[in-house]
Specification:
Pfam families: AraC_binding, HTH_18
Shape: globular
CATH class of the largest domain: Mainly Beta
Order of helices and strands: EEHEEEEEEEHEHHHHHHHHH
GO molecular function: DNA-binding transcription factor activity; sequence-specific DNA binding
CATH superfamily of the largest domain: Regulatory protein AraC
Helix content: 40-55%
Strand order of the largest sheet: 2-9-4-7-10
CATH architecture of the largest domain: Sandwich
Number of helices: 11
Largest sheet: 5 strands, antiparallel
Distance between the termini: 8 Å
Radius of gyration: 20 Å
Structural class: alpha+beta
Number of domains: 2
Keywords: DNA-binding, Transcription, Transcription regulation
Number of strands: 10
Protein name: AraC family transcriptional regulator
Length: 289
């Protein structure tokens, strides 16, 4: 079993584009970076990919998406992905670090909730005017990244923010929120951050409620209103997502994986995995190889 590679933006970036940003056409990217793409890997940066030609399949954290013209993917650091594409596949791609965005915006990249592992919204299929406008923004980003014009980074950030805002609006249109969801969304976003920071060491709903200075009952009410899941379900799903990643891509043995995820009792971890995933740990591992 091969340890999954975690790719750094410096493995892709062009010298003229700076240390925190990379942009390219998809066709050229596939030629220059093909060795990074066919095997599952992770990034330590944010990625946006727009397909304008071709078909294929894109695998992201145990979900498979059919690729076609208009497919837009936004990915956050840590997501495991790979793809198989037709020979004519083309489009646009850009990467950036968290610092590249957060340095210029007070709210930061975390304000885009679709990047959260708990939301798992990473794909939209665009057409018509939305596709034309998004493609034009990618074209302008690519043109700017290759030059040294005044306030280049500021213009790139403006364009990519428009892409992110458009993605967020389209995702919201597909899953409209009610008044309760809207009023609770800020607190849920806070909960997401705590889960991402502590899921390896803390599995208790009461502990997260304590971090947020509220009762476990109220936190459960917030989570049910926003995404229809209990606090315990959300925490467990995040733990099991990481468990799946490690079972496929880590060289650690099963007991080491369980321990790293905060389970001192491997037997309990194994039973939880089978109950939630539907197959045992070893069976999942063998099926995924």
């Amino acid at each position: 079993m091969n340890e999954i590679a975690i790719l750094n933006i410096n493995q892709f970036r062009k010298p003229e584009a700076g240390e925190d940003f990379y942009a390219n056409t998809l066709a050229n990217h596939l030629v220059t970076s093909h060795k990074h793409i066919e095997r599952p890997h992770k990034h330590d940066f944010y990625a946006a990919i727009l397909f304008t030609k071709g078909t294929g399949r894109h695998h992201i954290d145990f979900r498979t998406f059919n690729v076609k013209p208009g497919s837009l993917f936004l990915m956050s650091p840590g997501q495991a992905h790979s793809w198989s594409l037709s020979a004519e596949a083309d489009g646009f791609i850009f990467f950036h670090t968290k610092a590249f965005y957060d340095l210029h915006f007070i709210n930061g990249i975390d304000s885009f909730t679709f990047f959260s592992p708990l939301r798992n919204t990473c794909e939209l299929v665009l057409d018509g005017v939305a596709l034309q406008e998004t493609e034009q923004r990618f074209v302008k980003i690519l043109a700017e990244s290759g030059g040294a014009a005044l306030k280049r980074d500021e213009l790139i950030l403006s364009l990519l923010s428009q892409i992110y805002i458009g993605f967020g609006r389209a995702a919201a249109d597909q899953n409209p929120i009610n008044a309760a969801q809207h009023s609770y969304s800020v607190r849920f976003h806070e909960f997401e951050k705590y889960v991402e920071q502590h899921f390896r060491t803390e599995k208790s709903a009461e502990a997260y409620a304590g971090m947020m200075h509220m009762t476990a009952k109220h936190l459960n009410r917030i989570n049910k209103a926003v995404i229809g899941k209990t606090t315990t379900d959300i925490i467990t799903e995040r733990v099991l997502l990481e468990a799946k990643r490690m079972l496929i891509h880590s060289r650690k043995n099963l007991s080491e994986i369980a321990y790293e995820l905060g389970f001192e009792d491997y037997g309990y971890f194994s039973k939880l995995f089978k109950r939630r995933v539907g197959v045992g740990v070893r069976e999942f591992q063998s099926q995924s190889q």
